[in-house]
Design goal:
Elements (H helix, E strand, L loop, with lengths): L2 E3 L1 H10 L4 H8 L3 H8 L7 H11 L3 H4 E3 L1
Antiparallel strand pairs: 1-2
Helix pairs in contact: 2-3
Amino acid sequence: MKILAKRDIFTRSRIIKGLSQRELASRSELSHAYISMIERGEKSVGPATAKRLSDLLEKNVEDLFNIE
């Protein structure tokens, strides 16, 4: 299973919440580089990470990620 961010929606959601990539990384206990790769569609995430990021951005997992 691959879980990839819907790049534009993910990035827009982060910006609307007023978070930089570094702030989101800190709050989610992920690295800034990993958040950047998620936003560029270069990295997939696991189910727990998708849920954690969705909770922080106050969106449904299905709104932010494509599950293949």
